[in-house]
Amino acid sequence: MQILRETKLEGLRLARKVGRQKVLEILLKKKLGGRGGANFPVAKKWETALGVKADERYVICNADEGEPGTFKDKFILKNNFETMIEGLLIAAYVLRAKRCFIYLRGEYDYLREELEEKIKEVLEKSKMKVSIEIVRGAGAYICGEETAIIQSIMGNRGSSMYKPPHPTISGLWGKPTVLNNVETLTCVPQALVYEDWNPDYRLFSISGDVNHPGVYEWELGVKMSTILDVVKPREKIKAMSFGCFGGIMPVKKSSSVSQETICKGNCQHGAFSIIFIGERHNIVDICLSIAKFYTYESCGKCTPCREGTIRLVNLLKKIKSKKVNEGDIKLLKEFAEHIQETSLCGLGQSCGNHILTSLKYFKKDYMRYIK
Ligand code: SF4
Fold it and tell me: 0.85 cut: is pTM over it?
């Protein structure tokens, strides 16, 4: 696997040798984008923070992967953490940052002692005068969002803030702050060191109705038939859900899996977590379960999301009770669209994706409940 290649501080040595500007040029040329979903060029993000006049800058590693069905960052933390720390140090070097943070998902706290040991070892070897502090998240889904992480690290309640200003301009304690996730930072030294590093190799978290769930690495554009051959479905697969937030679409063996094909299907690939859904499931049940998750995780700061997520659950429950007509399905769609358009952060803006895409592809499952 490309992501498991170790760089043993060779990337950091190279970065210091060629200088900041050259590092940015290489990362841009190698097309390294953020692996959280947006694929925004890493070099551009770093360049923006570097361009802000400030006496201090910070780097945060987002290790708070809370998306249901996503576990690829945990895989890296366990199997190639030293390379990730090296990526963090390269970011600190480029940004002239003296303090770095790893915002660790609360559920991964059992890894913490081991991670702290490794941080100490790598820091000693690197001889860099930088601190790396692990901050434990308390389990809120919303704290995977960058402004919420920043609030949480500063000791405030972890909730999203309006943007702009973006954290690269004004983040932790009002200073320019760069956030990258575990996979992105691990790719930094790998992209610098290995000539043949390929930006299209991605980690996929696979779960659901398959015999071999787990973390896999495939090149974007991989055929769905290849994926299914490897993960071995337990039954005929009818759909795939991209975590909770990315929507639901049908599975076609002949299709390929890439950013383009997923977006074309009105879904969002995010961090490439695929939950396979077998034939025996009614998609309305899956949507209800996802809607309950959103209701639970809504931070309550803005009205459309706070109130709307509850309405979506109630409407889906009503549909399941078979006491509805087609007008309720229309209302469900309108609610989902309205909440997405008017919510403050990514949670509310994505909470209707599963409903809207399931209505597009699996309306039959809804119609079963209509009188
Ligand atoms: S969209 Fe939801 S999670 Fe985001 S700020 Fe509003 S209430 Fe909180």
Answer: yes
